[in-house]
Amino acid sequence: MGDDSATSAVSPKDRFLTVYGRKPVLEALADTGLEVDKVILADTVRGPGAAEIQRAAKAAGVPVQRASAHRVKVLAGNGKQDQGVLADVVAPRMRSLATALADRRPPARVLLLDGITTPANVGMILRTATAAGLDGVIVPRRGVAALDPMVVKASAGVAFRAPVLRCGSAREAAELLTEAGYSIYALGASAKSTVFDVELPQRTAFVLGGETDGVGEEVGELVTEWLRIPMPGDVESLNVSAAAAVLSFELVRRFR
């Protein structure tokens, strides 16, 4: 592992998944398989609701911090549904993409999410990729659905232990991958090669584009080759999470 400051400085955003709302926070505290770093409770939350959260946190040995309602809203980043409470849950396999690429054994095969804004799709992709044993799913902080309770729910809780790699944007990820010697593949309906017959080098990244616009132009400029999923039936395209499943388990078939 490199020990220079660029790779050793760890942002809290690369360590925790933040869940908000009374029920998700209570569920996280009750799950003995999860490590909750802290609970933050708005000073406007009083009475039985606050007492229930504080009891659950104490039973789990988790510290509770008080903050203004505005601060909780900013930290949750969700607008209106935080209910004045959030919890930072340790995601043991989550780290920055830069850190992963600087590792002595960088990830061999990763997915890169580009413009996927539906939380259900992000959650299902995280579940599928984790099940398939992929080395990483790059989830940029901009342009992709935030890793919030809706994503966690869609992943059936797998998001907490998924191999999530963080960076600023999909373009930034594509540049880092290119510099690190990865070949970048993207799914496109009109491509000549298919995911089943392309020869893959050792280090590969697969871009999954957004629900309406597909792979963005900024990332498309750095794509090594476009691939398609052959569909003999009369259907134009698959949902992005279904496409991710086809791709992930083709990689299982090849490299198991």
Automatic annotation (TrEMBL):
Tell me the ranges covered by the RNA 2-O ribose methyltransferase substrate binding domain, including all copies.
18-95
Which key words tag this protein in UniProt? Answer: Methyltransferase, Transferase
One example GO MF annotation = methyltransferase activity
Question: Known SMART domains for this protein?
Answer: SpoU_sub_bind
> InterPro entries annotated for this entry?
Alpha/beta_knot_MTases, Ribosomal_eL30-like_sf, rRNA_MeTrfase_TrmH, SpoU_MeTrfase, SpoU_subst-bd, tRNA_m1G_MTases_N
One GO biological process term is: methylation
**Of which family is this protein a member?**
Belongs to the class IV-like SAM-binding methyltransferase superfamily. RNA methyltransferase TrmH family.
Q: Which protein are we looking at? A: TrmH family RNA methyltransferase
- Origin organism is Amycolatopsis samaneae
